[in-house]
Amino acid sequence: MKIWIDISNAPHVRFFKDVIKYFEDEGDDVLVTARKFGDIHKLMDMYDIDFISVGKHGVTLEEKLKESAERVVNLADLISGEGFDVALSKHSIELPRVAFGLGIPSLFVLDNEHAMAANKLTLPLCSKIIVPNIIDMWKLMEYGANPNDIIRYNGTSELMHFNNFVFNENIFEDLGLDLPLQRTILMRPEPSLASYLNTDCRKSVLSPVVDVLKEYANILILPRFKEQAEIFEGIKNVTILKPPVDTSSIIKACDLVIGAGGTMNREAAILQTPVISCYPGDTLSVDQFYVNNGLMYRTTDLEDITKQALSFIVNPHKPIDFKTDDLFDLIVKNTYELGGSKK
């Protein structure tokens, strides 16, 4: 079977890496395309994934429109006539449009119900949509999704990141980090360049949090791009990590994660490292899933963040048992079904 997978954001590399390997081991012909954005290409190389680079990210609305339109054309030229049986993506804007136009069944993985523009452009065109149970199906229908095409599961997409995870207990030493204080906190700034979040990429909601907590713990900052790194340069007890790095081992080795984004917060919840979400937008349903299970604390109030942070690093929560579905199996099964395979 011929499978096309498109990767448009850095977390999607870890999401798809084991799926790609599985299909290749099964003898399927897999083509992976990836746009130039953030650390995508570096992560692809780190995980030894062969790919074709197509297109890049736009910053302004006009740039986003033009870059996406150009990427559709370039992908169509690449994919057309190659006889693909099925296409697979997670929040790629272009894959559903190209696949629909070329008559290729597409499987779409969704976890952000607030990404209005992206969802309107993609959901009506997808053959099947895999979505967490906690996301309101009516919201997806408002974007044009066919309820008969929605496949629901208990959990979130970050479960895929840990299929073959092996914890590196020496991660801090391997990175050569100077950590003078007893406790260590990992912080991830907000996704300022995303279309669904209107924020200044040269500022961060984490700045006042760092100013307070740097006296109590080592602070590791994992920026998304150069401008974010510059915000935190030269601050006492603050180390700026240079991706790509083994973020899973870093999360597990830290005493606390404070994130203004989404993916890393949910990864911390799965690994059961205490995590505080201070994401500046509306609370995502997938974050609420972990809040409901006692695995994430959600607040944007500086005093509350500080209070909870100090509480967590002194008294971390005990392991919490929570059950999820096998998302990996769900993706593999539906990919083969859409592609017409009997595997």
UniProtKB/TrEMBL annotation:
<protein>
    <recommendedName>
        <fullName>DUF354 domain-containing protein</fullName>
    </recommendedName>
</protein>
<dbReference type="Pfam" id="PF04007">
    <property type="entry name" value="DUF354"/>
</dbReference>
<dbReference type="InterPro" id="IPR007152">
    <property type="entry name" value="DUF354"/>
</dbReference>
